[in-house]
Q: What sequence folds into this?
């Protein structure tokens, strides 16, 4: 086959060049997705509910700005900042002023719609208030109050409700105070409880996923805040702001910059290492041709399969450099060891014949390991699976069929003495290990025990916020806003939905009743619901009917007489209470609705509690605080049994769930990958002993990798839990090459060269993966650290175990 390849040299080179250009053209159209939440499982019902919650209520699209002042008041600076925001075209709404008369405005709205809230308990209260003795006491109280404080507002309140009928409406307003959490309205502004920070809430005119416009938003906010701080420097402002847009921009920036840095460092370090090792410097450059071809093919295939691909998956490009360079190394390094007259086409064909088996098998196991990621619940991993498998396969084919055609065959062409003669050290190492198998076994056992102890320290990280590329400035702002106004992760969000708005509001009210019942039992400490002010349509209809029946003409006539008597006894004019009689007699044709609150303080609150699902259903959110003794799982179980399709979310519970998911993912993917590799190794060797020799370093490297991660304090997260795939896919290559070389070696020279090639490959892979440590983004750094530990441990395991298990030629090896 290889003789045929050399005969068709020009045709194959031309074909490879055309295919390469086609791949580059396709790769240029790849669209990157920088949203970290897209890494979450797309087939998990729990995560699907979380995604629905994020989408329906646009939780990532709200902006919060805290303005504090060490000296003086932050009000003027906040006004300046809000005014600049209003003049821009970047926001749909900006909330700064909370008018003092808003409560009175809302109270007037509720008073006009008393009938909507006239429950049985409200009816009983009204009956008690209308008793003659109760009216007499009420009017006596009003007489004292108006004598002491003759305010027009109080007089209007008395005229509109002389019997105290609106008391149950006031209770509803009090129940809404929980919406503010750690906040207070002071001077028409929303302050933290300690009064140290003033809050501005805003809604940008575009989603956080719109990176280009988000970049403009971030630039505008930084400029505006800088101007405010300079203008009001005497107040010594502390301005903090948070929005999903800011995180999106920071993630995108660090992903792109980190990708460029990590790939640059990877290529540079590998090139320097190659120049130190090769006798012919040209081979150092040829090494990268399979890498470049594989990368182009990987991007092209990924673009054809996925319209948008995770930037994290493509960000592992430096990882692909470290992996795919191995195939060029095995061809070029062995060719570099050919000397004198032995250099020629025939010698190269014989060399390729030796390499083709283990190289093909190594590529096959690596591709198979990556393809196992198609079974992952994480979409980012499935994208990485296609990207990496295509890159590895294309690089391996190029290394075997195209790269040899470019290697110079003239004796003495460009030869020099290499700086690093890595092949020279392996005869000594292999002979020592083959002759001291007991010592090698003791070391392996001791190191394995040390690693097992490290796995006991291994921790899992499920909080996606820690995978965000948050700068110190963003983290500082987050801490300040959470400290001043509360942490949203501490509360529970409960979402019900309906095909129509009416169905959703009715379900929300029924949910409120259940939560209030839990509150009476002490399981829930507070409940905030839109249904407090906007009950469901069935309830409203029933309440309105009850109101009309109660306030019959006869009842109004009796009430007039009772009020007139109480008024005359206390010196009031009976005709002054005509507005009250008219209000109870005239029920608005339409029930209370969202539009009635449009110009009030509750407009922004309600906007954040009502959303639309992807299927067009109306979704309504209720928030609750649980008592420490009441388990979240029990709370959710009770609600799910009563409200089919309800979404119950708490940030801390989601973090715990993702940790379990990561734990499950590691075991499931690792077991599948291990089974696939066992099958492939058996088909390759057809021998239990040789299969076992290949598997032992694989298992050791996995234990050592996780053990070292535990000792170094590297947490397992959604990105680096794929480390088992890297270990299985790459470490088994080293074992296959060394075992195969042992069987082929006559004088030991080929075996020592294989050891050098493996060491060279391991170093380049570690450089490629280690470069991700400089990738700025936390996802890159965590993956780079874990993978570097895995590959380093895997190489050590192969070198220590194979010579000890198969002493044979390792005892008499020569260079």
A:
């Amino acid at each position: 086959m290889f003789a045929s390849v050399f005969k068709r040299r020009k045709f194959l080179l031309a074909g490879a060049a055309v295919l390469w250009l086609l791949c580059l053209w396709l790769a240029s159209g790849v669209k990157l997705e920088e949203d970290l939440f897209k890494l979450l499982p797309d087939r998990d019902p729990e995560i699907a509910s979380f995604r629905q919650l994020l989408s329906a209520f646009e939780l990532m699209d709200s902006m919060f700005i805290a303005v504090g002042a060490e000296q003086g008041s932050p009000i003027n600076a906040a006004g300046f900042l809000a005014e600049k925001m209003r003049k821009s075209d970047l926001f749909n709404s900006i909330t700064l002023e909370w008018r003092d008369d808003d409560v009175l405005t809302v109270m007037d709205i509720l008073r006009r719609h008393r009938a909507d809230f006239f429950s049985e308990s409200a009816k009983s209260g009204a009956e008690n208030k209308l008793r003659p003795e109760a009216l007499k006491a009420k009017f006596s109280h009003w007489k004292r109050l108006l004598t002491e404080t003759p305010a027009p507002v109080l007089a209007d309140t008395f005229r509109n409700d002389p019997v105290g009928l609106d008391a149950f409406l006031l209770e509803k307003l009090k129940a809404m105070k929980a919406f503010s959490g750690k906040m207070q309205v002071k001077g028409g502004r929303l302050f933290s409880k300690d009064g140290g920070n003033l809050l501005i809430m805003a809604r940008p005119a575009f989603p956080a996923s719109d990176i280009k416009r988000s970049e403009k938003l971030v630039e505008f906010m930084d400029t505006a805040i800088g101007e405010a701080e300079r203008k009001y420097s005497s107040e010594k402002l502390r301005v903090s702001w948070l929005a999903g847009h800011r995180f999106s921009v920071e993630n995108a920036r660090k992903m792109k910059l980190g990708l460029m840095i990590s790939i640059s460092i990877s290529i540079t370090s590998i090139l320097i290492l190659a120049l130190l090792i090769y006798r012919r410097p040209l081979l150092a450059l040829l090494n990268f041709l399979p890498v470049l071809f594989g990368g182009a093919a990987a991007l092209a295939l990924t673009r054809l399969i996925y319209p948008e691909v995770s930037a994290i998956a493509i960000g592992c490009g430096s990882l692909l450099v470290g992996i795919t360079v191995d195939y060029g190394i095995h061809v070029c390094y062995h060719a570099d060891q050919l000397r004198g007259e032995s250099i020629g086409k025939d010698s190269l064909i014989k060399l390729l014949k030796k390499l083709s088996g283990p190289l093909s098998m190594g590529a096959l196991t690596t591709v198979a390991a990556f393809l196992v990621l198609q079974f992952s619940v994480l979409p980012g991993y499935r994208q990485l699976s296609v990207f990496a498998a295509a890159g590895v396969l294309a690089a391996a084919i190029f290394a075997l069929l195209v790269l040899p055609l470019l290697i110079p065959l003239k004796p003495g062409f460009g030869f020099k003495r290499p700086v690093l003669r890595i092949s020279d050290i392996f005869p000594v190492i292999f002979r020592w290990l083959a002759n001291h198998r007991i010592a090698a076994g003791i070391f392996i056992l001791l190191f394995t025990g040390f690693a097992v102890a490290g796995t006991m320290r291994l921790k899992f990280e499920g909080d996606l916020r820690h995978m965000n590329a948050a700068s110190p400035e963003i983290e500082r702002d987050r801490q300040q806003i959470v400290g001043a106004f509360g942490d949203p992760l501490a509360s529970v969000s409960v979402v019900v939905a309906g095909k129509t708005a009416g169905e959703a509001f009715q379900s929300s009210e029924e949910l409120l009743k259940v939560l209030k019942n839990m509150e009476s039992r002490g399981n829930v400490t507070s409940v905030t619901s839109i249904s407090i002010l906007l009950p469901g349509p069935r309830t409203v209809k029933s309440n309105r009917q009850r109101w009309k029946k109660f306030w019959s003409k006869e009842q109004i006539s009796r009430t007039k007489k009772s009020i007139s008597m109480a008024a005359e006894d206390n010196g009031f004019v009976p005709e002054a209470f005509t507005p009250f009689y008219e209000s109870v007699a005239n029920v608005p044709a339409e029930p209370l609705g969202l539009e009635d609150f449009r110009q009030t303080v509750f407009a922004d609150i309600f906007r954040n509690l009502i959303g639309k699902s992807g299927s067009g259903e109306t979704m309504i959110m209720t928030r609750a605080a649980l008592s420490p003794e009441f388990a979240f799982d029990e709370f959710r179980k009770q609600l799910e049994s009563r409200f089919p399709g309800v979404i119950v979310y708490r940030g801390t519970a989601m973090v715990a769930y993702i940790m379990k998911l990561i734990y499950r993912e590691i075991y499931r993917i690792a077991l599948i990958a291990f089974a696939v590799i066992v099958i492939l190794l058996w088909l390759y060797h057809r021998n239990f002993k040789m299969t076992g020799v290949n598997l032992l370093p694989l298992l050791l490297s996995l234990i050592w990798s996780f053990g070292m991660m535990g000792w170094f304090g590297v947490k397992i997260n959604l990105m680096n839990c794929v480390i088992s795939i890297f270990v299985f896919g790459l470490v088994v290559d080293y074992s296959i090459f060394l075992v195969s070389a042992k069987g082929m070696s006559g004088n030991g020279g080929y075996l020592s060269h294989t050891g050098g090639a493996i060491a060279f490959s391991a170093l380049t892979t570690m450089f490629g993966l280690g470069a991700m440590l400089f990738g700025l983004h936390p996802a890159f750094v965590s993956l780079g650290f874990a993978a570097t530990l895995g590959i380093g441990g895997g190489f050590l395991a192969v070198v220590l175990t194979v010579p000890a298990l198969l002493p044979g030629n390792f005892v008499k090896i020569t260079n």
In short: The first helix runs from residue 2 to 7. The mean pLDDT is 82.
